[in-house]
Design brief:
The complex is a heterodimer of chains A (296) and B (186). Chain A is an alpha/beta fold and 296 residues long. Chain A has a single domain, classed as Purple Acid Phosphatase, chain A, domain 2. In chain A, 19% of the residues lie in helices and 25% in strands. Chain A is built from five helices and 14 strands. Chain A has a seven-stranded mixed β-sheet, with helices on one face. A seven-stranded mixed β-sheet of chain A has the order 4-5-6-7-9-8-10, with helices on one face. In chain A, helix 4 runs parallel beside helix 5. The longest helix of chain A is centred in the first third of the chain and has 16 residues. Chain A is globular and about 40 Å long. Chain B has one domain. Helix content of chain B is 53%, strand content 10%. Chain B has six helices and three strands. In chain B, strands 1-2-3 form a three-stranded antiparallel β-sheet, with no helix packed on it. Classes of the chains: A alpha/beta (296), B mainly alpha (186). The interface between A and B is medium-sized, with 35 and 35 residues.
Chain lengths: 296, 186
């Protein structure tokens, strides 16, 4: 908490006619770290998605993340072949062309057959896990639209079998939220939280709410909502004791970096403004107190 | 003594034979669910058979191939089940059993919360029909996990969804409504 982090504050040079000016990166930006981006509720094909995508491109020039997590609602509306182009391939073309991988979770606007679309790296599964290319980190992508016994059993088994130091779950519906539109999904929480606690999940990333909210650690687990990569509900974060930091005035995405026991995060708007940053310490075990996020 | 013993043996044998011929008691609710399972198995047999004739649904960079596989299977199922009607899978008995299974999650404060979830993700109103394609542009409403926990498990290619107050049975690969229970959520 409050630990000083060596930050690389990299100013950028604006080039006329080029992509948006990149923002300051306040992350350690160590090439040995695991660096990734997070977007949620992104698949509109609209101007906001494009602006966020361009901002991601600019950020990547300074902070070369290798993959992006998608927190669901990857394709809004129809899912004809052209929609995959308009709502995914075209907005993220530069990132895709430079080798950035995308790992998708399903949202309530997503046809589960998206799992067969290779660029989403779901390996034909509605829920899956993968080991990060660097560090001792495993990600668990869940289908929160359909949390049946089969999936819960799978998750229990996967979490138990994982010997990764970091366990990060990502899916669409937030277990905790201060959103006026949706709020916390308590039924889902009843099913998932016991597993997260039992198996020391460190961080849970969700979308669904069209804003950014970092929550105060709940029972030692860190939760971040990032559902405004193309959709926005202005002023939708209600007054709540849950919020550590919220931003509901603009579109946003996340950059993250894991180095050892620390995960550093930075939430950035489509205009390049940093609206939240800080670090999270890895949970050592379920009974360790004093863990959790600290914002700067 | 021998006669008495023989008589006892004969009478025990009679009792044994009588008990042995009685129909074992069966839970009628379990029978209803067994019937549901058989109907699902029968549908999946057809689904798997028709899948063989459709382009395979496998990982691809080309979303047109996913769509082609979905459309071909949907066409096959529609043709094979041209006469299918509401209630073929969810018979009145099965529908009633499902309503009973869901009811505990739909009453009281828990029920209020469950219905809130359903309301939040509700797709626009639609007239449900067996064999209809689930509208591509409509969101797929989240099924609250507490409701799912009370319902029979389905094979991977089938799922429940709740549209307005109806419980639908949806073929995931073909994106078809296989059957539905109207007014399942009250």
């Amino acid at each position: 908490m409050g630990r000083l982090i060596a930050c690389a504050s990299l100013a950028c040079i604006a080039i006329a006619g080029a992509a948006p000016t990149a923002q300051n990166i306040v992350l350690p930006n160590n090439e040995k770290s695991l660096r990734f981006a997070v977007i949620g509720d992104s698949g509109t094909g609209g101007s906001a998605q494009i602006r966020v995508a361009e901002r991601l491109e600019a950020a990547r020039k300074l902070f070369p993340f290798t993959f992006t997590l998608m927190l669901g609602d990857n394709l809004y509306g129809s899912e004809r072949p052209d929609d995959f182009v308009d709502k995914f391939e075209r907005p993220y073309k530069v990132l895709l062309d430079t080798g950035v991988k995308f790992y998708a979770a399903l949202g309530n606007h997503d046809d589960p057959n998206q799992r067969f679309y290779k660029p989403f790296n779901m390996n034909g599964e509605r829920y899956y896990s993968f080991k990060a290319p660097q560090g001792s980190v495993r990600f668990f992508a869940l289908d929160s639209n359909y949390m049946d016994k089969t999936q819960l059993d799978w998750l229990e088994k996967e979490l138990a079998a994982s010997d990764s130091e970091w366990k990060i779950c990502f899916f669409h519906h937030p277990l905790y939220s201060s959103g006026d539109t949706h709020g916390s999904d308590t039924a889902l929480r009843e099913q998932l939280e016991p597993l997260f606690l039992k198996h020391s999940v460190d961080l849970v990333l969700t979308g669904h709410e069209h804003f950014y909210e970092r929550l105060k650690p709940q029972k030692g687990i860190n939760y971040i909502i990032s559902g405004s990569a193309a959709k926005l509900r202005k002023g939708n974060i209600g007054a709540s004791d849950l919020t550590a930091k919220g931003f509901d005035q603009g579109y946003a995405f996340l950059l993250m970096e894991i180095a050892g026991d620390d995960l550093h995060f930075q939430a950035i708007t489509d205009g390049g403004r940093t609206v939240d940053s800080g670090h999270i310490q890895r949970r050592v075990d379920v009974n360790t107190a004093g863990k959790g996020g600290s914002g700067r | 003594m021998t006669c008495i013993g023989a008589a006892l043996l004969i009478s025990w044998g009679f009792v044994w034979a009588t008990v042995g011929t009685q129909e074992p008691k069966v839970n009628p609710e379990a029978l209803v669910l067994q019937d549901f399972k058989q109907r699902i198995d029968k549908y999946m047999e057809l689904h798997k058979q028709l899948e063989k004739d459709a382009p395979p649904l496998k990982k691809t960079d080309d979303p047109a191939k996913i769509k082609a596989s979905q459309d071909a299977l949907a066409a096959g199922i529609r043709a094979a089940r041209a006469g299918a009607k509401q209630g073929d899978v969810f018979t009145p008995e099965i529908a009633q059993r499902f309503k009973s299974l869901m009811y505990p999650e739909l009453k009281g404060q828990k029920g209020v919360e469950t219905k809130e979830v359903l309301k939040e993700d509700a797709p626009p109103p639609m007239a449900l029909k067996v064999n209809m394609r689930y509208p591509e542009s409509a969101p797929l409403p989240t099924v609250p996990p507490n409701l799912l926990a009370n319902l029979p498990q389905l094979p991977e290619d089938l799922e429940y969804r709740i549209v307005a107050n109806a419980l639908i049975l949806r073929d995931v690969h073909a994106n078809l409504v296989i059957d539905f229970i109207p007014r399942a959520v009250r």
